[in-house]
Amino acid sequence: MRNLREIILTLAKEYNSRVVQYRRDIHMNPELSFKEEQTSKYIQSILANEGIKIIPINKQHSFIVVIEGNGEGKTIGIRAELDALPIQERANVDFSSKNDGVMHACGHDIHMASAIGVALIMNKIKERWSGRVVLVFESGEEQLPGGAMAVLDSAEFKSVMPDIMFGLHVLPEMEVGMVGFCAGRYMASGDEVYLTVKGKGGHAALPHTLIDPVVIASNIILNLQTIVSRSAPALVPTVLSFGKVEANGATNVIPNEVRIEGTFRTMDEGWRDKAHSLIETKANGIAQSMGGSCNVEIRKGYPSVYNNPALTGNAKKLANDLLGFDKVVDLEPRMTTDDFAYFSQQIPSVFFRIGVGTLNQEPSQLHSSSFIANEDSLQTAIPLMTWLVLNNLK
Question: Are residues 278 and 265 in the same domain?
């Protein structure tokens, strides 16, 4: 594979200016989740012009790209996301968003450009490998219920079901040229928690005549934290946070109800289900013990991302071979979410990170209006993903 390694690196450089322009075009024309019609058409046109097979998914903006090698072999899948975020861009670049209030603030433009680059290289050298490469361009990753399950459930995807899935994601805290891996549990599941605490409102100066939902809500918020500290398995990362509380009373007015919104995140599916029951039981019990009531709604989000340990270990070794040991790091698990999790729950998978930070510059955060990924990262992402695919086709 030594000769093939040099060919991959050479082709990545050869295609670089094209891929950078694709990235900039995508960045300038972002579309929100499940509305990525033009983005989808744009990428399909690029690859169709190269003679690459496109499989649209019925009633979706998601689509599949299939490249056949020279003979029978494994099927390796790659996922890239099409959608942007509802953010007004403040990044100072000459290819900033043309669409008011919409921005590629999570690096999906880099992910798409990387997948295009991999497709171009794999198609160029298809006589040199056997098997099949399936690239999934997925709609709606940023918005529940996400687009991954719809892809997995589609007849089109099932007809080309991969043996292995790969995905990448930008990481602004890591410099360009660096990549990171985490075997096993990597990213959390993410559920939305909505509580409506009901009591009896009235004049704040007459608390003895009321059932104060503000006090009940306060007790619920504090006591639910014991689910994390006293009920969660000690070795399973768990977060229960409440970021929104609405009482709509006044200095001298106790409202009839209080609304609370939060998130529950963990990395074990069995514990996840048990925790949902505990949240409901505890919230209802506390409210009833204080004379009120609590309606609990938990909207189940993405499951946890699980990186197959053997595949991840091998991917890390391959990255060392391609990039050098000083460019590859071990990552800690993180409590953010990604709907690549659905693929990882059904197919042996590896989801890794690509550095997009610039040396000696304070990194801008994902999902911020000033976020901009360093596009030099494409010269790491494209050859590495291609290298991983080729070595796993064997």
Answer: yes
Could you give the CA distance from residue 59 to residue 40 in angstroms, rounded to a whole number? 13
Last residue of a domain, which of 275, 299, 323? 299
CATH code, domain carrying 224: 3.30.70.360
Which of 299, 331, 346 is where one domain is finished? 299
Q: Do 381 and 276 sit in the same domain of this protein? A: no
For 171, other C-beta atoms within 10 Å of its C-beta total: 23
The C-alpha atoms of residue 344 and residue 356 are separated, in whole angstroms, by 24
Cis peptide before 30 (omega within 30 of 0): no
Give me the domain span that covers residue 173: 2-187+304-393
Helices (H), 154-255: 155-158, 213-226
Whether residues 144 and 264 fall in one domain: no
Rounded Cα–Cα distance for residues 128 and 69 (Å): 7
Domain count, the chain: 2
Q: Is 83 a residue of the active site? A: yes
Query: Which listed residue (31, 81, 83, 142) is catalytic?
Result: 83
Paired tokens of 130: 């056997």
Task: Taking the CA atoms of 247, 248, 251 and 256 in sequence, report the sign of the dihedral they define.
Answer: negative
Same domain? For 109 and 52 the reply is yes
Choosing from 31, 141, 268, 338, which is the catalytic residue?
141
> What does pLDDT average to in each consecutive run of 10 residues of the chain (394 residues)?
86 97 98 98 98 97 97 96 98 95 98 98 97 98 96 98 98 97 98 98 98 98 97 96 97 98 97 98 98 98 97 98 97 97 98 93 90 96 98 93
> What is the reported pTM?
0.94
For 239, the 3-state DSSP assignment is strand
Residue from 194, 193, 196, 210 nearest 257 by CA = 196
